[in-house]
Write a structure and sequence with these properties.
Blueprint (H helix, E strand, L loop, with lengths): L4 E4 L4 H12 L8 E5 L18 E4 L17 E4 L8 H22 L3 E5 L10 E4 L11 H15 L3 E4 L2 E3 L6 H12 L9 E2 L1 E3 H13 L6 E4 L6 E2 H12 L10 H7 L4 H10 L3 E3 L24 H17 L1
Parallel strand pairs: 1-2, 1-4, 2-3, 4-5, 5-7, 6-13, 7-11, 8-10
Antiparallel strand pairs: 9-12
GO molecular function, one term: aldehyde dehydrogenase (NAD+) activity
GO cellular component, one term: cytoplasm
Protein name: NAD-dependent epimerase/dehydratase family protein
Length: about 325
């Protein structure tokens, strides 16, 4: 019998695409899927995986550990996609650190055999990182969010779980990565020239499939993994492609990094984003994409997906609408 899965953050950006990947899977039926949603009034994403009977829905909040009691009962695999992103250190610690600790304890109590946690390469701090493997880099998180997610990782890893660390995640529902770069270009009124810093990128649809495959695989995946497209993209290519696909009007000629810093003086958040883009954030694959066992589902098509340019083209209409709003 296929395993029973719990998906946290099922109504969010990555969690929603994990639910979509479960709909594609030929292994797991909706009756074997439980979706954890925080908002009591929110409907299950897409009405639940699969065309037929909906998945089971439970309402709980990572900020309220008592509400998690029983959510893992009867569950074999937990796909933990929920997190809080923001500058409120108390809230991010409550949700990401303490909430994950409570969830992992509940999964252990209920006898779940695997927990897969979607983290972020931001737990490494600021670059440059060039072709780095997971075991080569110490954790040095800078922001409240990345510090709390590094703490969440430790709870999962201590329980023998799987941690996935994507860098730039793009696709429908992304309100941070591509919109942030578009906002940076708007402030500069120009693109960046000759910026060769390399960045790892992954399409959220490929990430969703990766999360499902990590949960279902018969491989021993315990530990941390980089989950990005194997080909990094330069900063200038990122921004030029984005401006072209989204139809951004940039009246000025491309500027170099020094001129960009001058134009962004007094805008600390924009300077922070520029600093990230101007340094290598290239995280090498440790073999995660190298093949999954039959447990991942025949014909599931787990792989890193299309490269950056094609992925952005496929999501461009969603981004244009979002940026226009």
């Amino acid at each position: 019998m296929p395993p029973r899965l719990l998906v946290t953050g099922a109504g969010g950006f990555i969690g929603g695409h994990v639910v979509a990947a479960l709909r594609e899977s030929q292994t797991v039926t909706p009756s074997r899927i439980r979706l954890l949603l925080r908002d009591p009034g929110s409907p299950p994403p897409g009405g639940g995986p699969g065309a037929g009977a909906p998945a089971e829905v439970v309402r709980a909040d990572l900020a309220d550990p008592a509400s998690l009691r029983g959510v893992c009962d009867g569950v074999d695999v937990v796909l933990h996609c929920a997190s809080h992103i923001g500058d409120d250190e108390r809230l991010t610690r409550t949700v990401n650190d303490h909430g994950t600790h409570a969830l992992v304890e509940e999964a252990t109590r209920a006898g779940a055999t695997r927990v897969v946690y979607v983290s972020t390469a931001a737990v490494y701090g600021r670059g440059p990182f060039t072709g780095a493997l997971p075991g080569e880099l110490p954790l040095a998180p800078v922001s409240p969010t990345s510090r709390s997610r590094a703490a969440a990782e430790r709870h999962v890893l201590d329980a023998g779980g799987v941690v996935l660390r994507p860098h730039l995640v793009l696709g429908a529902g992304d309100r941070w990565v591509v919109p942030g770069m578009a906002g940076l270009l708007g402030l500069l009124s120009a693109s960046l020239k000759d910026c060769t810093a390399r960045h790892s990128v992954v399409d959220v649809r490929a990430l969703g499939r990766a999360v499902v495959a990590a949960g279902l695989s018969d491989r021993d995946l315990a530990g941390a993994h980089h989950v990005n497209h194997p080909e990094p993209v330069t900063c200038s290519e990122l921004l030029d492609t984005l401006a072209d696909r989204l139809g951004l009007r940039l009246p000025g000629a491309p500027v170099d990094i020094d001129e960009a810093r001058t134009r962004l003086a007094g805008k600390p958040r924009a300077l922070h984003h520029l600093g990230i883009l101007a340094a290598d954030h290239w995280f090498a694959d440790d073999g995660f994409w190298g093949g999954f066992g039959a447990g991942a589902g025949a014909g599931f098509g787990t792989g890193p997906g299309a490269g950056f340019a094609q992925s952005l083209a496929e999501h461009a209409s969603w981004y244009r609408e979002f940026v226009d709003r």
